[in-house]
Design goal:
The chain is α+β, with helices and mostly antiparallel strands and 480 residues long. Helix content is 68%, strand content 9%. A five-stranded mixed beta sheet has the order 2-4-5-7-6, covered by helices on one side. The chain has a two-stranded antiparallel ribbon with strand order 1-3. It is rod-shaped and about 180 Å long.
């Protein structure tokens, strides 16, 4: 179980890569399905077209067979008359002959677009007309009882029958070839339609399966993330509980001995000041100073630990008001150092009012404290909206969010570039205690406050040229 959890939590692809792959699969599947559906439609149209052409060819062949049958019937009755001399067959010959032009005319609309067949059809119409004429003349000449005329007309009629039969045979052969070609094309398109049905189905199955696998894997991973997050929350709650206990100890049990040390050292100094040597007096002074520094460190550490728990719900905070409170708290320091603070209008954000005051107060006091001796401190505070993606080391979930960038710049002594990250470490000092007062916890508190608001803080400077602090606070509420 632990191994599988480890494997799932240590994904080989980042969240951004997984999102790109998912979008790629979706886009590719849509393009393929659309392209295949378009091709399928084109092939289906061709299939319908060739099916219609096959039906058309079948109608042409059927019409040619009808013409051939009518011609055969007319010729048969004419031959029967010559053999039996029965005029009733002449009437049957005329009746059969009269149907041939109409049948020929029906073929006309079926061979449109085929020039060779149209030429044959025109020739066929001419011969059918001649055949009809000779047949009528033959019927009229029967009453004359003139064998020479009858046989002459009969011979001419037979010549037309041969021409008509030849043309019908040629047209039938051409239509037969067209029929075979069109049936092959139709069958080929039928096969392609069948294949495309399978291809579209397989593409859909492949991409749906891929999406299912990715979704199933993500759901499992999210389940393990939830379990891991619950464990971390439990550990965090335990750590916070221990930190609260430490805060209690720091505020009561640890400070009590320090107060006694300072009290006893003060008594010794006041009572035996004239009796003890200068060296002992100096040692007692160092004991008192060390106890005082220790007490200050404990108080600052206690302040830092209290920032873990806000003690109130987030609300809309006007940063201009927070800055004004911070300036009011530092009024004596500002007046003493003749500090000048220029500030643009600041936005309102979701947050914790007391922490925002602490943030501005620590940053302003830091800029005033580290000013150049020969210059009065000048602090400028500016604001602008930026996209989350420009923030160094921003979380992936924050890249699409807009942030308020609040820049605090001063004309102080600055610091070396390599200390840009280290200055936010608790108790980290860049100068000796004799140069500047403090414990080095102020900027660590600033970082904790900004982190509590799901924001970011950075510092940049060049030694001797002042410092710039960049605070990024989300423009939309991310606090729960």
């Amino acid at each position: 179980m632990k191994l599988s959890t480890f494997n799932l939590l240590n994904r080989t692809l980042s969240e951004q890569q997984l999102s790109l792959i998912t979008r790629f699969l979706l886009g590719t599947s849509l393009i393929l399905i659309i392209a295949l559906s378009y091709s399928y439609n084109e092939i289906n149209q061709e299939l319908i077209n060739y099916s219609e052409k096959v039906n058309q060819t079948q109608r042409v062949i059927s019409s040619l067979n009808e013409v051939s049958s009518a011609l055969y019937e007319s010729t048969y009755h004419a031959n029967t008359y010559l053999f039996l001399k029965d005029t009733a067959y002449i009437n049957k010959t005329l009746a059969a002959a009269k149907t041939i032009p109409a049948l020929t005319q029906k073929i006309d609309s079926l061979v449109i677009g085929n020039e060779s067949q149209q030429k044959r059809l025109e020739a066929l119409k001419v011969h059918v007309g001649e055949f009809s004429t000779y047949t009528e003349h033959l019927a009229k000449s029967v009453t004359l009882v003139n064998p020479a005329i009858v046989y002459a007309l009969y011979k001419k009629k037979n010549l037309e029958v041969d021409s008509i039969t030849k043309l019908i045979s040629e047209m039938s052969n051409v239509e037969g070839q067209l029929m075979q070609m069109r049936m092959r094309s139709r069958d080929n398109y039928k096969l392609q339609v069948f294949r495309y049905n399978w291809i579209i189905m397989l593409v859909a199955i492949v991409f749906l399966s891929s999406a299912f696998v990715l979704l199933d894997r993500e759901l499992k991973r999210n389940k393990f993330y939830r379990v891991d997050l619950e464990n971390k929350i439990e550990n965090l709650n335990r750590s916070n509980s221990e930190l609260e206990q430490f805060a209690y100890v720091a505020s009561h049990d640890l400070q009590e001995p320090l107060r006694k040390i300072r009290s006893f050292s003060d008594r010794l100094i006041s009572r035996y000041q004239e009796e003890v040597s200068g060296e002992i007096f100096q040692i007692l002074g160092k004991i008192d100073g060390s106890a005082q520094r220790m007490q200050l460190l404990i108080n600052d550490l206690l302040s830092f630990s209290r920032i873990v728990k806000t003690g109130s719900e987030a609300r809309l905070i006007n940063l201009n008001a927070s800055l004004a409170d911070a300036k009011s708290n530092l009024s004596e320091m500002i007046i003493e150092n003749k500090a000048v603070i220029h500030c643009e209008s600041l936005p309102s954000v979701e947050g914790y009012g007391s922490q925002m005051v602490q943030l501005f107060q620590n940053l302003l006091s830091n800029s005033i404290k580290y000013h150049k001796k020969d210059q009065r401190p000048v602090i400028r505070i500016t604001h602008r909206l930026v996209n989350g993606e420009i923030i160094p080391g921003v979380k992936p979930s924050h890249q699409d969010i807009q942030f308020h960038q609040i820049r605090i710049s001063d004309n102080g002594i600055g610091f070396k570039k390599e200390f840009s990250e280290k200055i936010f470490i608790i108790f980290k000092r860049l100068h000796g205690r004799n140069e500047f007062a403090g414990t080095g916890i102020g900027l660590a508190i600033c970082k904790r406050v900004v982190s509590n608001h799901n924001g970011y803080i950075f510092a940049e400077s060049t030694e001797g040229e002042g410092a710039n602090f960049y605070i990024y606070l989300p423009s939309e509420s991310l606090l729960s």
